[in-house]
Amino acid sequence: MRAKWKPYRVATLSLASALVAAGALAGAAGPASAGTTAVRLDYTCTTSLGPTVEVTAWAVGGLPDDGSGPNSVPRHQPAFIDVDVYLMELRPVLELADEVRLDGDSTATLGARITGPDGTRTVEAALTVAPAWVRKSQGASLRTGGAFPVQYLSQEGYYDLHVDGLELVLRPKRADGTSLGTVTASCSHDPAQNDLLGTVWSQGLVSDRPLRPTGLHVVSTTPTSVTLAWEANSWWFPTAGYDVYIDGGNFGRFPGKQATLTGLTPDRLQRAKVVTVDVTGSQSTKSQGLLFTTPPA
C-alpha cells in the first residue's frame, strides 16, 4: 500500500498547539477538525507599496472524510476541500497607520495543484479575511478562510494537493471606519519548499446513507447569533433531524430545515455545515461549508 502523507497529517491537538505557538490561532474560529492537515510556507511578496517583504503562512486544509477512512471520498461524490490560511507578521505588507482594521472586504486567493491518476489540475481558493486589528506595536496575524471549487475525483486513487502562490487584496480602515486605500501583494514560495497540504483518497465504494443537505445559506445574523436554512430530502428512512456544526463543533440537532444558533462570538469569521440524521441514527456526510461573519458587538 502506498505510504500516505504521514509527515503532513496532523492530529487535532498537535495542530492546534503548533498554530497557537506560532500565533496563528489568535482570533481563530475554533478547533481543527478530524480531517485537518497543515503545511507551513515562507512567501516572498511584492506589494503595491513598493517593498518586497517576507511573510510566513500556515495553510490549513479541511479534507473530506466521506469515504472509508480519513481524508477519503467516494469517487462518484463531490469532494469539498476547505482551506484556511493564517498569515503571520503583516506589518511590513501594510506600512500604514499605527492601528488599522481589516475585515471581509479584504480578500485573498490561494493557488494550488491537484495531482492524481487523471493528471494535474490547477485550482484557486477564494478566501475571505477574518476581522482583525493590525497594530505596529504587536505581531500581526491574520486568518483568511475559504474553499477550493468542488472537485470530482472520478478515478480511484490518491490525489495530492500542493499549495502554490498567494494573492492579497487588503483594504485597511482607520478606527473610525474611513478607508486607507487598497494594498495588494503577489506572493510566491521557494519551489524547493515542501508544499504538500494533504492527500485525498478517491474510493470505488457506494455508501447507503441519508442524502447530505444542500443550499446552506444565512437568513440573518446578530453579533451573537445566526439563522441558517438549507434544503434536504429523506432517503430510505424518515429524517429525525439535522445536526448543525460551527467550526467543527456540534451546536445540536434541529427538527426542521432552519436553525437559529446563539452564543456565538461577535465580529468573527465562522464556517457552518449541516448533517442529515434519519430515524435509525444513520448520518449523511456533511454539507458543503458556508462561511459567515457575525457583526461587531
Structure description:
This protein has 297 residues and is mainly beta. The chain folds into two domains: 192 residues, Immunoglobulin-like (Sandwich), CATH 2.60.40; 80 residues, Immunoglobulin-like. It is built from two helices and 19 strands. The protein has an eight-stranded antiparallel barrel. The chain is flat and about 60 Å long. The termini are far apart.
Summarize the model shown.
It comes from Saccharothrix longispora. By secondary structure, this protein is mainly β.
Q: Tags for this entry?
A:
297 residues, mainly beta, Immunoglobulin-like, 2 domains, 8-stranded antiparallel beta barrel, 4-stranded antiparallel sheet, 19 strands, 5% helix, flat, disordered N terminus, Ig-like_fold, polysaccharide degradation, FN3_sf
Unreliable residue runs = 1-34
Strands side by side in the biggest sheet: 1-2-4-9-7-6-10-11
What count of structural domains?
Answer: 2
Shape, please?
Answer: flat
H/E element order: HEEEEHEEEEEEEEEEEEEEE
Structure annotation, total helices: 2
Radius of gyration: 20 Å
CATH class label of the largest domain: Mainly Beta
Total strands: the figure is 19
Largest sheet: 8 strands, antiparallel, barrel
Work out the helicity level.
under 10%
Cα distance spanning the termini: 52 Å
